[in-house]
Design goal:
Layout (H helix, E strand, L loop, with lengths): L3 H13 L6 E4 L2 H19 L17 H25 L8 E3 L16 H17 L2 H29 L1 H9 L8
Antiparallel strand pairs: 1-2
């Protein structure tokens, strides 16, 4: 129940990556792989039981059925938010921070209230998985994942600000960074 949404996410991402516009501007190599390293470390801590050495392998709290069910629900909701956001980005999506050919500022769907709903969804899904697995390694992993996505989102903000100017400033007034703005 907890791995299935991540598999669905991965398949959708792989298929969607085949239909994107040509990249005209991208983040530097070092910046890209620095964030990728953080995400790999975070997700390894979250999903790899062998990463649970020492206190990292201990439970955070007594895991009951209700906590596990809540974690599973959060994981599915988070993945659905990320997929919804990815669908709205369409051909402008990229795994790295980029500007695509004829790039448009997307403000529909989850982008109406969030500037980075894919990261928000993945953060929520990671928190859900951590609740389900209930290990200190998962808590540390979620922290690393959230920090990685926050750094990446800040880089995107700089690039989008340069590309869209006042339109992006206006978007920032109406859409939250990683939490929705109502």
């Amino acid at each position: 129940m907890i791995i299935a949404p991540w598999i669905i996410f991965g398949v959708y991402w792989a298929i969607g990556a085949l239909r994107t516009r040509r990249t005209v501007q991208k983040e530097p190599f070092v910046a890209r792989y620095g964030i990728l390293f953080l995400e790999v470390v975070g997700f390894t801590l979250l999903f790899d039981e062998d990463a649970g050495f020492g206190f990292l392998g201990q439970r955070v709290m007594h895991r009951g059925l209700a906590l596990a069910e809540m974690g599973i629900a959060m994981t599915w909701i988070g993945i659905l938010i990320a997929l919804w956001a990815r669908w709205h980005l369409g051909q402008y999506w990229s795994a790295r921070v980029t500007i695509k050919e004829d790039h448009k500022l997307i403000r529909t769907g989850p982008y109406a209230r969030l500037r980075h709903p894919i990261y928000t969804g993945l953060d929520l899904a990671a928190i859900g998985a951590a609740l389900t697995f209930d290990r200190w390694r998962c808590v540390v992993g979620v922290c690393v994942i959230v920090i990685g996505f926050a750094i990446k989102a800040k880089r995107e903000e700089r690039m989008l600000g340069e590309q869209f100017g006042e339109a992006f400033v206006e978007h920032r007034r109406h859409a939250g960074f990683l939490l929705p703005k109502w």
